[in-house]
């Protein structure tokens, strides 16, 4: 009969008391944040730590080689904008050890899922495209309804791009052009809305949207000659997904769904360079480095804790993590 002893279970560590101020464990200066579980760090040391975790995750995998074209998925949220900022710094002239891959940015408009108006969707696109312009990297935009054609079958239609005959357009010009194109895409929007309407539970809808998103990203990667698709999933979101997948009977797929690389899609792999960082660390980095991000509603926005398996596991992980900072790392192992 199987038995579990106390030595087999890692004890969760209580949140440390930070009152009274502490010194940086690296340089001795006044600490401004506490990284990991109980490591006080000053601003400079925290940024160095954060950047190193990101670059080390990419480096130790040895999957992204020099000159690889990588499609970077940016939603405009905190995680993906932090990832974009790290990539920009890693490819800058001032970087000591430059990243060697060639990034192409993409934003997928999912406004149809939450019933946003055309004006709201265009505003979101303009905001994210402003971040893209500031990065200096080539970028493109698409919409989730592109994955469904007029007959309702799952095929990919031509993708809207910010590059036309090799000339980059401003994000305002792109948004104006996209607004006109949407008039011709009402049928696709209608078909996707019908598909979502026939998906009754929020859990099923979230799963459907994720699969459609990944299918569209794979097509975009093939279209632009990219061999990798970079996602902004953190250890916090992945820990919640681990529990959600197990609850839905997909435990066998956890290693690929949560690992650094998911190579189930042939020549194109999904990679997760932010997987060693928590949502809290990302928020601190964005605050200390003035990284801009925007909030775009999704299916779980304003949803109750028990609305879906994903929202329940996310609430469970975040609740434990608030008092026991080792929760995420324990689940992750």
Which percent range describes the beta-strand content? 5-15%
The main pleated sheet reads as: 6 strands, mixed
Q: How are the strands of the largest sheet arranged? A: 5-4-3-8-10-9
Arithmetic mean pLDDT: 83
Number of helices: 11
Short note summarizing the structure:
The chain has 333 residues and is α/β, with parallel strands linked by helices.
Describe the structure.
The chain is globular, with a radius of gyration of 21 Å. It is 43% helix and 12% strand. Helix 1 crosses helix 9 (279-288) and helix 2 crosses helix 9. Mean pLDDT is 83; it is low at 150-160 and 163-168. The strands form three sheets. A six-stranded mixed sheet has the order 5-4-3-8-10-9, sandwiched between helices. It is of the alpha/beta class and 333 residues long.
Topology:
Blueprint: E1 33-35, E2 39-41, H1 43-61, E3 69-73, H2 78-90, E4 102-109, H3 118-135, E5 139-143, E6 163-164, E7 167-168, H4 171-181, H5 186-197, H6 202-223, E8 228-230, H7 235-247, H8 254-258, E9 261-265, E10 268-271, H9 279-288, H10 309-323, H11 327-332
Parallel strand pairs: 3-4, 3-8, 4-5, 8-10
Antiparallel strand pairs: 1-2, 6-7, 9-10
